[in-house]
């Protein structure tokens, strides 16, 4: 459910702001699965995004070998980080490397379903790539039994592109409009009220007259 | 001497004040404010005791011109001039003290010269100003705009015989000299060009009218006012080890290797003197050279007559000199005018490396001004220690240090403990009453005891010069001072930091603070640990680290001595913990670094296994764009001691919008030039544990100066809008939505990714110099944003006004929620200025700290001046009003009680009488 909401939001976000010059990027994914060799990264797959504004992507990922799966399980047991390196290539040949991590355990618990968030700056360059897993309840605890039961070896990733939004400016226009509207309404109100003096202020006059009558009557009583 | 002293008028007002006080003996808000006024580190100084109004005229590094009282050191007047290069004071010339002209010592203070004092400021344009030195006003001003702006940066000025000379060196080529009438600014002729291929930027200076360059073992000089442009070479005994300096007051005299050298053949000097600092003055109508040195903690002042180099015994003195002032250098001296002077009327003015200004007279330090306080870079409020009796009680309650008392121990022992503790307290109180109690400690004698509301604290101030002050936040007294020479701020434009390693809560243990800095000589890290109450070094004091500090963070308290360890990431990405015994606590800590220039962020996790610390990079973010044209201009995290009391916001339909409270969220702001939009400012909200970019937002045609506050679930930042040329504030609030993902524990690794973001922009009709949110003990009190303006005022802005959920159309929903309808301009009512007329010149930063009272927040505003006060954002709901009438309420109570008793008595009598009838 929350995932649906997120997708909706991202659609909304993309409609708020888009790039003036659309471009494409490709991303190579490598991951590090071994806690003993943290600097060794093996290939996981690649993503190509033909249009950053459209936000659609094609994801091709290798299945995990049995050894790799064991490595991840070991990593999860040590409460280690599953580290993912994303190499982003731009149309002009520039290449930038990004690193992101998540708990190996939560990746296993999510059955290798993850979401890759690609954040863009206002010019369409990637600022950060983050891999996250769907929030499953009770997933914070990592039990050995649950881990051992995982047999899945295919990554299934969603890619969400997040654009930088345009900041609001002080909304003087609508404030002035509102002010004008109120002023007009006041003026209109004054013009329309063409009723006579008594018609307008009868509610003040009647009690005064009544009071006068009553006091007069009581005075007369007293005089008698 | 006439100086601002309590005059008759002041006495009258004082007695009036006393009268007023006697009618209502209360403490009002304006009485809890403290301001101290500063001028900054000394640049030029001139002591003048012969004037009918003796004064010390000076200019400072902070671009201030001021006049001090020679007797007390108080400021008679002060003018804060333009900032940056435009206001850079190049020269100070006091009338009647010109080089080589009418400078016989007894020359009358000449108004015939057309000025009292003149200053030259800036280079393009250069501003020449004439001052009235009695009241500190500018009397006239002229300016010149040089042809070659970049060349004019190195321009120097000198004054001779009513003419002001502008000397522009064109390095390795020639010198351009233009003469102006000093008061009018008219040129006396055309600019003369003097060929001089031997001038180099690093080794030349101007001494009087001589342009002097050092070339190996000789000085090459040129008299710029002489008819013939003859180059004079003066050979030196040895190549100077330090930079050559000029001796003001003597034409063509320099200080080389601590000795005096003259390049002017008409000016003889006493070449055999050796001293760290010299100054020229007059004594008994004769010119003397005074010099001062620091020898074994004693400041020795000597003087010789310039004409025959014989010593002046009257001026010899030696003064005990406190270490915390740093190294002194003599800057000016003058004597009162009288025949057969005994030297008692002479005042020596010193500037020290700790940026103090001090005056020595009659063998003692007459006064000292702590001008390093004009550059405060960090502050902390420290709770004062408990009074003895409370301390013992607290100690008993907690159990003695090391002794383990189970919480659920049986009720009888707990009761017995309580009784014995209170008996002990009674005993100590009795002893105290009959005068047999333990003698009070130093801090208690100084009045440094915690008050019941926690409003009285020790304010620790760290200054850029490396001097640390312990100041009473109510009395404003400096309780202690420390000076750390040879420390500086870090790379990446990071300043030194002052951190609290142990608070005052752990009673028998003293609080502990630390300063983290860079050692100047080898740029390695330095830690200095000290007790913030007494100002004495603790835990070994200064600790030189053998690595450079790239980032540091505080660890949780240790179990043993409650010290928060410092986790340091060094330049080689190795992690260290100081003190060492806190190392196991570093396991699982996250660190991040941000490079300002390349706008790259990196996140690390620290692991502790097998006695070894290691750190693994786990994420990185690049905000630099393509060619790293974006630069980080601001980083704003949340205050780590902040508590968020309410988790959500009640909407109009009685549902709750939950706040997105992520303690690891940090705001980064980058700025880059842009072809289409001039300049683009981008705000990024990044979770620094997981490295995810939570939100980003772009402003077009907007630029620095940027000020930002980040607290709870919101942030507010001010910037300059280049398109409409005004300052604006944008505010953002983050919400999780109608449900909370996990309401007990926050984990950045399992956090909701996209919070709802509310945003709005406002116009603020002032220039913002500093912003800070108020903070209180439990976070129940409303948050206000303190906005420091360029005019030195501090405005308290309620968050209601900055709220991004202020509805544009006055819908009922907004009204139900309690939000004020949107108005684009923020109001700045004068009653919201918390410092009224006590403006803080050059306001740079505002610091806040909670007090013991939930309603009250302590505030320090720093700049050239220092301003300390407290604010109560939701009014003082937990305090009785200051003017609460105790007498009236007790009278009413007594009257009512006695009245009811009397009435009861009367009624019973009446009943009795009636019964008899």
Automatic annotation (TrEMBL), chain A:
It is a single-pass type I membrane protein. Pfam families: ECM10. One of its GO terms (cellular component) is EMC complex. Keywords: Endoplasmic reticulum, Membrane, Signal, Transmembrane, Transmembrane helix. The keyword Transmembrane helix applies. It is found in: Endoplasmic reticulum membrane. Residues 1-17 form the signal peptide. The chain crosses the membrane at residues 201-218. PANTHER family: CHROMATIN COMPLEXES SUBUNIT BAP18-RELATED, ER MEMBRANE PROTEIN COMPLEX SUBUNIT 10. Belongs to the EMC10 family. This is ER membrane protein complex subunit 10. It comes from Drosophila grimshawi.
UniProtKB/TrEMBL annotation, chain B:
The keyword Zinc does not apply. InterPro entries: Beta-prop_EMC1_1st, EMC1, EMC1_C. One of its GO terms (cellular component) is EMC complex. Its main location: endoplasmic reticulum. One of its GO terms (biological process) is protein folding in endoplasmic reticulum. Keywords: Endoplasmic reticulum, Glycoprotein, Membrane, Signal, Transmembrane, Transmembrane helix. It is a single-pass type I membrane protein. Residues 711-916 form the ER membrane protein complex subunit 1 C-terminal domain. It is found in: Endoplasmic reticulum membrane. The chain crosses the membrane at residues 884-903. One of its GO terms (molecular function) is membrane insertase activity. Residues 1-26 form the signal peptide. The keyword Nucleotidyltransferase does not apply. Belongs to the EMC1 family. This is ER membrane protein complex subunit 1. It comes from Drosophila grimshawi (Hawaiian fruit fly).
